[in-house]
Design brief:
109 residues; mainly beta; Jelly Rolls; four-stranded antiparallel sheet; 0% helix; globular
Length: 109
């Protein structure tokens, strides 16, 4: 379990949403003073594949999801307070079976 933040102070929020899969995945970018970036998002029920350029840490804020990293045969289930990491130049399948999964995506250098 990790300590998922409740809020971020002193950031710039980008108002234009990142919309994927016909609105079934939506996020907003937040920019920090140190030039780092995170996205805060929602995933509605469905199964989706994402590719990564940079390495990512996906922290689950609410709800749950099933994840399979590219190149792996095992799936993992993640719920609020848990996270998974995705290598750079890779990808993952994520499935939300019901409800809404809320997440924080951090881009790892």
């Amino acid at each position: 379990m990790s300590s998922i933040p409740n809020e971020f102070r002193g950031v710039t929020a980008v108002t234009k949403a990142n919309v994927y899969f016909d609105g079934k995945v939506v996020s907003h970018s937040i920019l920090f003073g140190d030039n780092s970036k995170k996205t805060l998002g929602l995933i509605y029920p469905g199964k989706f594949h994402f590719g990564t350029d940079k390495a990512e840490r996906m922290e689950i804020v609410a709800g749950d999801c099933v994840v399979k990293l590219d190149g792996q045969s095992m799936e993992g289930t993640y719920a609020a307070g848990q996270y998974f990491e995705v290598p750079a130049k890779s990808g993952f399948d994520i499935e939300v079976k019901s409800g809404i999964c809320e997440y924080i995506c951090s881009f790892i250098s």
